[in-house]
Design brief:
Layout (H helix, E strand, L loop, with lengths): L8 E2 L3 H7 L29 E7 L7 H7 L10 H13 L3 E11 L2 E10 L2 E7 L9 H8 L11 H15 L6 E9 L4 E9 L5 E2 L3 E4 L6 H8 L14 H17 L6 E10 L2 E9 L4 E4 L7 H7 L2 H4 L4 H16 L7 E8 L5 E8 L5 E8 L6 H5 L18 H16 L7 E8 L7 E9 L5 E8 L7 H5 L11 H17 L6 E8 L5 E9 L5 E8 L6 H5 L12 H13 L3 E8 L8 E10 L3 E14 L14 E17 L4 E10 L2 E10 L8 E12 L6 E14 L4 E15 L8 H4 L3 E13 L10 E11 L9 E14 L3 E11 L11 H4 L40 E14 L3 E13 L21 E10 L6 E8 L4 E4 L4 H9 L6 E4 L3 E7 L4
């Protein structure tokens, strides 16, 4: 006869069970007994030897090693009911079990124990069908489900998630969506992958809204118009989307605000479904009129909205009005009215309207002219001043920047600076002086600093660090013996220690500190107490979401391996590297079962692959002096004339080719100066080398940016990019190209030689060092490049030359507002193995025309129009390029007006030279055939800051522009007179004045 009992517990009762203990009954199995005898009870197992421990199912969510460490019951030891209860509690604490039963039965020589378990499940990848029209995007749908990667899974979550998604779809015009949640159980990792199969149907459109409430202020027609839900220039309404609905309601509120109805309420009650249309029901209450006046001062409506918060909060109360008072006071004080008084007065009229008057007494306008700092010994004046918000008058700030709030803010800033460096008793006093130095309206502020003593650390004791060796970490702490004591340093040390523990898998490590006076005055004895907590390790890294991407590509980016400490920093590094591949639109990471009491955990990465195809377009415009026209018959303006060059660019890319992170792209550019197409194939981390990328490209380029000729280039290039370090990158290139020129505007006798198509094979190495603080708008740092190339017959080239082009740019801060920038470029291009038929003295330069250096313009020498520097044709005056160049640019950049507009004073010097031996620093042109001298230009520029870089306008004056011979006719006339050797030259020169408009700094 069997006595049957069991222990059955559910996870939701785990805390209760662990708190109050487990009353269990053990299944005891024995042979049948004789009638009248008592069957054995569970107590009969107490003290018997455990001969076997088994698990059902045999495949458990915890590894055998973990089970041995967790369970107090061991084979060969004595059976105790208390050990069984402890075992169940510990298994529940891991979070990996939903049900646990224990079965005990007699066995030869003792008792056999069997744990019958039911595993928990955890949320894996949550996704939707791929072909859903946006909005909403798939990511927003997944977020609406509120199912978090790695969290414990409960089937009751699915109906809630489905309803959340349905609400989101309805808000976006899909009134009758079909949502089918599909669950896929992964027994290997205890994960449930959830896919919401969605069919949306057609998106509904708005219909004429139903307006309820008071429409006396705004008519129903005006309200409907304000929503902007009607289609532009087309009949009917737009499709319903959540963002469009919110925007429409906000537009109605703004309409009421413009009518001084700040308390108006606009409520979207619902959107009634009418077939394939949705009829919004909007309830409006205009509220009473709220008028705000500022007697005593004039202020724009825009500034009033920004400073008085009742516009944003749509309610009127004393706190908001008081906040507006303080904001307006700061606003006027920042504009020089330092004695301004602001008070508000609120009155109610009989018709229910509210009148709010901010009574402003501006007082005399001041200029903040001097900021004095005294008493500082530890920090110099510059260190303190650069942290302050107060600013004396300057070219940028006509009246300076001053207010009472700024003074209080800067006092706190100075005290924080000293306290963080051990001056615990620092005090700062402020004194304001009006009519400074007897000048009416001039204001000065004086800060007097009483530094007090500096406190030092007399000793540092660290307790609790037993599992992790902190020897190196302790050496890097700021709170060393003899060093400055401050709570700021202690906080920094805390972060250092906790981060070190985090990197080694101690997720629950905590830090406490205490201090007591040291043995000497102004010293502190510190004690750090660390509670390390348990160490956690990586059980396995689980990646989901891959469709076309090869798993080995992802595996190469993983910073974690099984058995490694569970480091959040390594997890984040892996996430960053996966994003850097450029093929994933989203990378979610999580720890499975984060609250479970287990020391080996699964690390999850859920990847969403980006769209494999991307299309980019761009439109640009260049406005500057451009030399001549495109027409071959037009020989006018070889030195440049005002012109506008529109530019259109289109790009199509195929990402993640073959699932290996490789990209094929086709880029095209069309403008009046250029037609360009590039087909490229990008291979990241080629040969499994993380610092090397490769690009294979084919290019076709038809360019007229040098107006002397039209260049056509067909080129194939192999480029290898090596990222040596963060600032240093090396490019290894080999290019093979066929270059031809046509439509030459030069002496017809030279055309047959210079117009020949040339094949060039060239190998190049380009080293780039970039230590600028901001590549778009640098304020400090350096930027160096060195490009060395070799074209030789060994590479299949028909011409042989060496190209060396170096650039050095530096950026220095002068004080807090000025930036001094300079750049020097040097280019050398000597030819060798010159063909006997093309001697250097025949044409002056044996380098093919399209391979020569061309320069001048907005990024090299602003004394020239674009590509107009250097040697010129002696008959037509069009530029011919050269074999050497030197440019030196200097700029002084300074604030001009407000925070976004800066000014630049610049000086450019340099030229393109016919040969290396012709390079010269002289500043005078010897004759109209001499172009080997240095041209200087000075000028002024304006920069307007934008998110994509500063908009740039430069006005330059060339001090010594070159003169040259031009031809005052068309090309047919040139042909006729050149045959008769009777061409008459026309003396011309580059204009003294040049201008350039573009985006980005000159260098």
């Amino acid at each position: 006869m069997n006595l049957v009992g069991h222990c059955y517990a559910r996870s939701i009762l785990a805390v209760f069970i662990l708190s109050f203990g487990l009353a269990i009954r053990v299944v005891a199995r024995d042979t049948p007994t004789q009638a009248g005898t008592n069957p054995p009870s569970s107590s009969s197992f107490e003290g018997q030897r455990i001969v076997n421990i088994a698990f059902d199912p045999a495949q458990q969510p915890l590894e055998g090693r973990e089970l041995d460490e967790i369970l107090p019951v061991k084979r060969g030891e004595l059976y105790r009911a208390s050990d069984i209860r402890t075992s169940i509690g510990r298994l529940y604490a891991t979070g990996r079990y939903l049900d646990i039963q224990v079965d005990a039965s007699p066995s030869a020589g003792g008792v056999a124990i069997r744990f019958i378990t039911k595993n928990s499940w955890f949320i894996g990848k949550v996704s939707t069908t791929d072909d859903l029209p946006e909005p909403p995007p798939a990511g927003q749908i997944v977020n609406a489900s509120r199912l978090q990667l790695g969290d414990r899974f409960d089937p009751a979550q699915i109906p809630v998630a489905t309803e959340n998604i349905r609400k989101l779809l309805v808000q976006n015009g899909y009134f009758h969506p079909s949502i089918d949640p599909q669950l896929a159980y992964d027994t290997t990792y205890q994960q449930v992958n959830i896919t919401f199969a969605i069919r949306t149907g057609k998106r509904a459109r708005y219909s004429v809204p139903k307006i309820t409430g008071d429409t006396s202020v705004l008519s129903a027609a005006a309200i409907v118009k304000a929503t902007r839900w009607r289609r532009f220039l087309l009949p009917g309404f737009r499709g319903i989307t959540l963002n469009r609905t919110r925007s429409g309601i906000d537009n109605i509120r703004l309409k009421y605000e413009n009518a001084n109805r700040l308390l108006a309420t606009v409520v979207l009650k619902n959107i009634d479904q009418e077939g394939d249309k949705g009829k919004p029901e909007i309830d409006v209450n205009p509220g009473s009129i709220v008028s705000i006046t500022t007697p005593g001062a004039s202020i724009s409506k825009k500034q009033l909205r920004q400073n008085v918060p009742i516009f944003e909060e749509h309610t009127v109360d004393a706190d908001l009005l008081s906040e507006g008072t303080a904001n307006l006071r700061d606003y006027f004080q920042a504009r020089g009215y330092f004695d301004v008084e602001v008070h508000f007065r609120q009155t109610q009229s009989r018709n229910g309207s509210t009148e709010i008057a901010y009574e402003i007494e501006l007082g005399k306008r001041h200029r903040f002219v001097y900021l004095g700092i005294a008493g500082n010994k530890y920090f110099d004046q510059e260190t303190i001043r650069e942290r302050l918000f107060l600013a004396p008058r300057s070219f940028e700030l006509r009246n300076g920047r001053f207010s009472e709030a700024f003074v209080k803010r800067d006092i706190d800033t100075i005290e924080d600076l000293y306290e963080s460096n051990g001056f615990r008793d620092v005090r700062v006093a402020a004194r304001t002086v009006d009519n400074y130095k007897g000048r009416a309206g001039d204001l000065a502020e004086f800060f007097t600093i009483d530094e007090g003593p500096q406190y030092l650390v007399s000793s540092l004791t660290i307790k609790g660090a037993s599992k992790l060796d902190l020897a190196k970490t302790i050496q890097s702490l700021s709170s060393q013996e003899g060093q400055v004591f401050s709570e700021f340093n202690v906080a920094t040390d805390r972060e250092t220690i906790i981060q070190q523990y985090g990197r080694n898998g101690f997720a629950d490590a905590s830090f406490e500190w205490s201090s007591r006076p040291g043995p000497r005055p102004h010293t502190v004895a510190l004690e750090f107490v660390i509670d390390e907590g348990p160490q956690q390790f990586v059980r396995q890294v689980v990646v989901s979401g891959l469709k076309t991407t090869q798993p080995e590509l992802v595996d190469k980016q993983l910073e974690l391996s099984p058995g490694d400490p569970l480091s959040p920093a390594a997890m984040a590094d892996t996430q960053r590297k996966l994003y850097d591949l450029g093929i994933f639109s989203q990378v979610d990471m999580a720890i499975q079962n984060p609250d479970g009491d287990e020391d080996r955990k699964y690390v999850l990465y859920d990847l969403d692959e980006a769209s494999r195809y991307s299309v980019t377009t761009g439109v640009g415009l260049q406005f500057a002096r451009i030399g001549g026209s495109n027409a071959i018959t037009d020989l006018s303006d070889p030195g440049g004339a005002p012109g506008v060059t529109p530019r259109l660019s289109v790009g199509v890319s195929r990402l993640n080719l073959f699932g290996r992170g490789q990209t094929v792209s086709l880029q095209g550019v069309v403008s009046t100066l250029q037609k360009r197409g590039v087909l490229s194939y990008f291979v990241p981390r080629i040969f499994n080398r993380p610092k090397f990328d490769a690009t294979f490209s084919i290019l076709y380029d038809d360019t007229f940016d040098v107006r002397t000729f039209q260049s056509k280039r067909e080129e194939a290039t192999v480029k290898l990019t090596e990222r040596v370090s963060k600032p240093i990158t090396i490019f290894y290139d080999f290019s093979y190209r066929q270059v031809g020129v046509s439509d030459l505007k030069i002496n017809p006798l030279l055309v047959p030689l210079l117009q020949q198509s040339v094949r060039v094979g060239i190998a190049e190495i380009n080293v780039v060092q970039d230590r600028r603080d901001d590549p778009l708008d640098p304020h400090k740092g350096i930027y160096n490049t060195l490009d060395v190339g070799l074209a030789t017959r060994a590479f299949g080239s028909q011409t042989s030359f060496v190209r060396i082009l170096g650039r050095n740019a530096t950026y220095y801060r002068l004080g807090s507002k000025l930036v001094f920038a300079r750049e020097t470029q040097i280019g050398l291009q000597p030819a060798f193995n010159i063909s006997p038929g093309i001697a250097a003295n025949d044409l002056g330069d044996p380098i093919p025309l399209a391979e020569r250096f061309f320069g001048g313009g907005g990024t090299t020498q602003r004394g020239f129009p674009e590509n107009q520097a250097g040697p010129r044709d002696s008959l037509t005056g069009f530029p011919l390029g050269g074999s050497a160049l030197f440019f030196n640019n200097t700029e002084l950049r300074f604030p001009l007006y407000g925070p976004n507009i800066n000014g630049v004073l610049f000086e450019d010097a340099g030229n393109v030279y016919s040969s290396i031996g012709s390079m010269s620093f002289r500043v005078r042109q010897r004759n109209v055939d001499d172009f080997n001298y240095m041209v200087h230009a000075v000028g002024f520029g304006v920069r307007y800051k934008t998110p994509i870089g500063p908009l740039r306008l430069d006005l330059a004056y060339s001090i010594n522009p070159p003169k040259y011979n031009g031809f005052p006719g068309n090309y047919s006339q040139l042909l006729q007179c050149s045959v008769a050797n009777s061409c008459q030259a026309s003396l011309q020169r580059i204009s003294h004045f040049q201008f350039f408009f573009s985006i980005g700094q000159a260098f």
